[in-house]
Amino acid sequence: MNPLSLFCILAGVTLNAGAQLLLKAGTNAVGHFEFTRANILPIGFRLATQPPIIGGLACYVISVVVWVVGLSRVDVSIAYPMLSLGYIVNAFAAWYLFGEVLSMQKLIGIGIILIGVFVLARS
C-alpha cells in the first residue's frame, strides 16, 4: 500500500470515527429522548439543528468520498478491516471527551483489533 492509499484509508477511518463522536455530542446536547408520534417532529427538528449532528453528517459524506478514492487503490479485503481502527479511536476519544469507561476488557479488545489489523496489512 503506497502512502497516498494509506492516507485515503486512514482519513476515511478518522472521518468516520469523528462523525460518530459528533453525533454523540449532538445527542448529548438534546438529552435522552424517545421517538413517539407526539414528539417525532420536535425531537427530529432539535436533532437536525444540532451543530455537532450536522458536522457529523458532513464528516460521513466526506468520509464516503475519501473511502471511495481509497477503495479505488486498495483491495477491499485490506481496506475494510482498517475500519476497525475507528473502534480504537472512538474508545479513547469517548473516554477522554465523554468520560466513558475504558475497562481492561475493552483494552484487551483494542489490542486484539490492533494485532488483527497489523496481520491483515502485512498480507
Automatic annotation (TrEMBL):
GO MF assignments: transmembrane transporter activity
The UniProt record lists the keyword Nucleotide-binding: no
Subcellular location field: Cell membrane
Membrane topology: Multi-pass membrane protein
Top-level lineage group: Bacteria
A GO cellular component annotation in the UniProt record: plasma membrane
Main subcellular location of this protein, as a coarse class: membrane
Keyword Cytoplasm appears in the UniProt entry: no
Residue spans crossing the bilayer: 53-71, 78-98, 104-121
Stretches assigned to the EamA domain: 53-120
Keywords: Cell inner membrane, Cell membrane, Lipid A biosynthesis, Lipid biosynthesis, Lipid metabolism, Lipopolysaccharide biosynthesis, Membrane, Transmembrane, Transmembrane helix
GO BP terms, alphabetized: lipid A biosynthetic process; lipopolysaccharide biosynthetic process
SUPFAM superfamilies registered for this protein in UniProt: Multidrug resistance efflux transporter EmrE
Name of the protein described by the UniProt record: 4-amino-4-deoxy-L-arabinose-phosphoundecaprenol flippase subunit ArnF
Species of the source: Paraburkholderia ultramafica
